[in-house]
Structures are given as structure tokens and as C-alpha cells.
Specification:
With 395 residues, the protein is α/β, with parallel strands linked by helices. Helix content is 36%, strand content 19%. A 7-stranded antiparallel beta sheet has the order 13-12-1-5-3-17-18. Strands 7-6-11-10-9-8 form a 6-stranded parallel beta sheet.
């Protein structure tokens, strides 16, 4: 009989360097056996954002620092949650290359995955304006990374996440309504709604799913008549095969609830929601449940390159073709993303209104700063979003 297992690496295996590409192990072994030690500065940056993107959200720093803690390296970084543009420095690792070569793979994986999810969530946050966004994307991912995905989406600005484990790992109380399965198993809508109201903690808003068997307008009114003032909202999760014009469906539900005296009942839409749907529905709905669009977003292609080597105690700019040599500093004048990039050690900003964004987070493996709480990082992202223009929705 085969031995069953779940194929995920442990945190210990990650910090021990097991989760890397083999050529980094071979590179380290060559340098060590040849006695060739050279101090370098490796810079992490994005040279091309996804089509239609003008900015991205830098996320995953806390986990990177976890991986590098205790290693003989110095780390400079933007604050986690910083919005950035193409060709701007995000993170710099300084040290002997053979000491940290094997960590390039996991660090890139952390930063790319985190930043991709956080960026997409931030785009939805900006497009949705003041409407609620719930992240329902866990079913699109491997369960081992559910807390990570919830954290990245929350950093990007969603209002709530659905993962039960995120209460343990992140301190976020999970949100969610009910699946179609509950209604189908119980046989009809009223029985399911009644059971939900009787069993689920009273602190959970009564948001009823209204598209299982009948027309959305009919089920919305059924729920409102049945629960009365206890009903907080209704959720429309109509599949694409029955959807037609979703905006027209929502408008019909809203009209029907209003004329029957239920203007207080909120409308949440979910199921295949993308930027186009948020843009088109934001004026007539109260919230969005968004899953796969955030869980599997366009990739923020962060790369890492050696940009300086130390020779006789002096840092010399050098890098491969197609990249800009020299370790860099990002200066920013707020409000907005008024940015200026120059050399880390000897560059100067245009004027005193430009503030340096990269600071030293770690020296010789020792953490130098306090890591901000998750709520602080999210607040920082939302503050920056308030200073920039709304993105053009990507269809």
C-alpha cells in the first residue's frame, strides 16, 4: 500500500535552504570549495509590470526577514505595503554571496506570490471605492498556503477573508455566508435560511444566498419576507450559464426589495467577479465576494540581480546586460508616487520633500526594526491608494 502524504515544505526546511533550485546549491559549493568569497549587493526589482498595471504593492517582507534571520547578511527594504513602479529597488541583500545564494529562490517566491495577490486586491480596493470586498479565493489554492493568501489579500485592502486558519495565524475573524450545498441538502431555501438563523452565532450578519432554485428577484423577496428585520443582506452567486446581464439582475433585485420596504437589505455579488464587474456594479451593490481573480492574479515578476561587488573595501557597480548597475535608493514625494531613483550610497534627492524609502531592516542577521502589525500595513496601503488615480479596469 502506498504511503499517503501532503507535499509541502516546513518552515524549518525553508530556512535551512532545502527549498531552492539545484544550481544555487552547486554555485555555493563551487564558491566554497574554490575558496572564492566576494561580498555583493543583490537588488530585487521589477523591470516590467503586467499589461495595464502602472504600480504594484510590495508584500511578503516579514516572511523574507524570517528566512534571513540569523544569517550573516544585511537587508535594506521598502516598508511592506509600499506601492512601487517599474525599475524601482524593493529589497537589497548585502553579504558574501555563498552565504545567501540558496535563499534567492524562496525569497523570490515569497515576494512574487505575496505581491501578486496584494496588488490585485489593491486594484479591486481602489475600483470598489467604499464597497465591501470579501476574499473567497482559497479553493483556488493549495491549502498549505491559505493563511499566506489571506494575509496578502488583506494587505492589499480586502475587508475580510474566509479562511478559518487565518484567525489562528493572522488574528482575522473569518467571514462568509452559506454555500448552495446547504440549501440543496436541506431541500429548500426557507429551511436552510431558518436553520442558519437558528444555529449560527447572532454576531454573524444574516446574508442569505438567493439564486439556488428560483429567480433571484423571487428568492430575494422570499428571504426578506421570511427573516424581516433580521435579514442583513442577500448574496447573488448566479453561474455564468444563467447569468445574462448581471447588472440588470442586480438592478431588478434592488428595485423589488425597495418597493416592498426592504431598502435596508444589502446586496452582495460573487462568482467570477473581475475588475470589469466591480467597475460596472459598484454603484448598485453593497459588496463583492472575489475569489479566483485575486487568488490567481497577473504575476508581479520580481527579479534579483547582483548590482555591486566589494573590491578593496569599495562598492563597485556591476550587473548583467539589460539591468542598471549600482545598488539604489528610492526617494518619494507624497502625496502620490512622485519617485526618484538614485544610488544608495552617494545619490541625492531632487529636494528636501523627497524622502528615502529603503531603510536597513537587518544587520548581520539581526533584526533592527519592529515589524508593523497586519492592520498597520493594510492602512498604509489604503492611504497610498487614496493618493493615486483609479486604475483602468482590466477586462
Amino acid at each position: 500500500m502506498s504511503n499517503l502524504k501532503i507535499y509541502v515544505a516546513s518552515p524549518q526546511e525553508i530556512i535551512e535552504g532545502l527549498t531552492t533550485d539545484i544550481y544555487f546549491v552547486r554555485t555555493r559549493d563551487i564558491l566554497v570549495k574554490k575558496g572564492f568569497r566576494r561580498k555583493v549587493r543583490m537588488e530585487f526589482h521589477v523591470y516590467k509590470l503586467p499589461r495595464g498595471y502602472e504600480w504594484a504593492v510590495y508584500a511578503g517582507l516579514e516572511e523574507v526577514l524570517y528566512v534571513l534571520k540569523g544569517k550573516p547578511v544585511t537587508v535594506y527594504s521598502l516598508p511592506e505595503g509600499t506601492l512601487f513602479k517599474e525599475k524601482e529597488p524593493l529589497l537589497i541583500i548585502e553579504g558574501y554571496y555563498d552565504d545567501f545564494a540558496i535563499y534567492e529562490t524562496p525569497i523570490l517566491g515569497i515576494l512574487r506570490h505575496y505581491s501578486s495577490i496584494a496588488t490585485k486586491a489593491a486594484r479591486f480596493r481602489k475600483l470598489a471605492r467604499d464597497k465591501t470586498i470579501l476574499f473567497f479565493g482559497l479553493r483556488a489554492l493549495h491549502p498549505a498556503i491559505y493563511p499566506m493568501a489571506d494575509r496578502a489579500a488583506y494587505i492589499g485592502g480586502v475587508d475580510a477573508v474566509s479562511g478559518v486558519a487565518s484567525e489562528k495565524y493572522l488574528g482575522l475573524k473569518p467571514s462568509g455566508t452559506m454555500p448552495h450545498a446547504l440549501i440543496i441538502v436541506m431541500g429548500n431555501q426557507l429551511e436552510a435560511w431558518k436553520a442558519f438563523n437558528e444555529v449560527v452565532d447572532t454576531g454573524v450578519p444574516r446574508i442569505m444566498l438567493i439564486d439556488t432554485f428560483f429567480d433571484e428577484r423571487i428568492e430575494a423577496l422570499m428571504a426578506a419576507n421570511f427573516l424581516g428585520e433580521k435579514l442583513y443582506g442577500v448574496r447573488i452567486d448566479t453561474p455564468s450559464s444563467r447569468r445574462g446581464d448581471l447588472k440588470a439582475i442586480v438592478d431588478e433585485v434592488r428595485w423589488t426589495l425597495d418597493i416592498h420596504g426592504y431598502s435596508n437589505v444589502k446586496i452582495i455579488v460573487s462568482g467570477g467577479i473581475g475588475e470589469k464587474e466591480v467597475y460596472e456594479l459598484r454603484d448598485i451593490v453593497d459588496g463583492f465576494g472575489i475569489g479566483t481573480s485575486i487568488a490567481h492574479p497577473p504575476h508581479i515578476d520580481i527579479s534579483a540581480d547582483i548590482v555591486e561587488v566589494e573590491e578593496d573595501g569599495v562598492w563597485r557597480p556591476i550587473t548583467k546586460r539589460g539591468k542598471h548597475p549600482g545598488a539604489k535608493q528610492l526617494y518619494r514625494k507624497r502625496p502620490g508616487l512622485n519617485d526618484y531613483v538614485t544610488l544608495l550610497d552617494r545619490g541625492k534627492p531632487p529636494d528636501e520633500n523627497y524622502k528615502p524609502m529603503l531603510s536597513k531592516y537587518m544587520e548581520n542577521g539581526e533584526l533592527l526594526v519592529d515589524i508593523p502589525a497586519l492592520e498597520e500595513i493594510r492602512k498604509y496601503v489604503i492611504e497610498q491608494l487614496s493618493e493615486i488615480e483609479e486604475p483602468e479596469p482590466i477586462h
